[in-house]
Amino acid sequence: MQRICFLLKVRQDRLAEYRERHAAVWPEMLDALSASGWHNYSLFLREDGLLVGHLETEDFAEAQAAMAGTEVNARWQAEMAGFFEALDGVRPDEAMKPLTEVFHLA
To answer: Alpha-carbon distance 40 to 49, whole Å?
Structure first.
């Protein structure tokens, strides 16, 4: 099982709305994530907009590809794109670059 951690930056003026959206993630999005192999997925948001994501999956590239192939993900990413800084023209899910794990206590 791979443990994946990534960082993104939520725009300061949209923090409250970002929290609201994630308090009510669409049920079909939750189903798609689970079916695509995303497990123990968490998002942590700091007051300055730093977003830390963590998930576990058998193969991150496969899990991303599986989600990219769903219609619900396309809709979700289109709605979420405006919340983030510095996406450089890519969707939020394409901007998730895993950090290198340097320590883990099992």
So the answer is: 22
Name the nearest CA neighbour of 55 among 96, 24, 15. 96
Provide the CATH number for the domain formed by 2-94 in this structure: 3.30.70.100
Residue-wise pLDDT for 36-80, tens only, equals 999 999 999 999 999 999 999 999 999 999 999 999 999 999 999
If DSSP states are collapsed to H, E and C, what string results for the chain? CEEEEEEEEECHHHHHHHHHHHHCCCHHHHHHHHHCCCEEEEEEECCCCEEEEEEEECCHHHHHHHHHCCHHHHHHHHHHHHHECCCCCCCHHHCCCCCCCCCCCC
Query: What are the residue numbers of the active site?
Result: 22
